[in-house]
Design a protein that fits this description.
By secondary structure, this protein is an all-alpha fold. Helices cover 72% and strands 0% of the residues. The protein has a single domain, classed as Up-down Bundle (Heme Oxygenase, Chain A), CATH 1.20.910. The protein starts with 5 loop residues before the first helix and ends with a helix. Belongs to the PqqC family. It comes from Lentzea albidocapillata.
Length: 231
């Protein structure tokens, strides 16, 4: 089976937009101002586990990649999340958001609130990056194509609907919006260039679909937990 033209391949990837987590019921309730403080805390604590593991996922992709040029490009993602020194980076900014919604740093870092469903989904994503070809791992990150609009919407909603959250808690979103301003074009270019067979193209589409499932599984876990009304 021959590879399809780049434009058709890109269209297949973009067609997965409805599977992204922007339409998840939990996000819809968040944007409508319908979440309790407890629900926001559960979301922040569980999303932390995903944030903590992103750098490990990207390091796994690097370890499989033979291209110095792509490794140089991709390692910037690790720096963005981990920072160049303590107290910097996207992961640190997420902790500040968790603190802004009323959690302590200690309870975020010891992961006492991380739900089994969240842990299972995120660990599966890291393992996926370790065991799949590097270009397939990179393709899973193409949720960047969909994330910019969601983050802008979420930042507006959080500021308007939950005015008790301190502004310094939004640093993760303000920084990340800038980081994904290109809507994943650099990542898309890598995937298109290095997916030269139809099998590789289909693997890339499957990887992006899997990543969407991982993200939605995290929200499924938090939504179910919140619906139980547990303390």
């Amino acid at each position: 089976m021959s590879a399809v033209a780049p434009a058709e391949f890109v269209a297949e990837l973009r067609a997965l937009a409805p599977r992204y987590w922007d339409s998840h019921p939990f996000h819809l309730r968040m944007h409508a101002g319908q979440l309790s403080k407890h629900e926001l805390q559960a979301w922040a604590a569980n999303r932390w586990y995903y944030q903590r593991c992103i750098a490990q996922k990207d390091a796994a992709i690097l370890s499989n990649c033979p291209s110095p040029e792509i490794r140089r490009q991709w390692r910037e993602r690790i720096v963005w999340h981990d920072g160049t020194r303590p107290g910097e980076g996207g992961a640190e900014n997420w902790i500040r958001l968790a603190e802004a919604v009323g959690l302590t740093r200690e309870e975020v870092l010891d992961e006492r609130h991380v739900l089994p469903g969240t842990r299972f989904a995120v660990d599966a994503y890291v393992n996926f990056a370790r065991t799949q070809p590097w270009v397939v791992g990179i393709a899973s990150g193409l949720t960047e194509m969909f994330s910019g609009a969601l983050m802008r919407k979420r930042l507006t909603a959080l500021r308007e609907q939950y005015p008790w959250i301190a502004e310094e808690g939004f640093a993760y979103f303000t920084d990340r919006i800038q980081a994904v301003a290109g809507e994943g074009q650099a990542t898309l270019d890598i995937v298109v260039e290095h997916s030269v067979t139809r099998e590789q193209q289909l693997a890339a589409v499957s990887a992006l679909s899997f990543k969407c499932d991982v993200l939605r599984a995290v929200l499924d876990a938090v939504d179910y937990y919140s619906g139980k009304g547990r303390p």
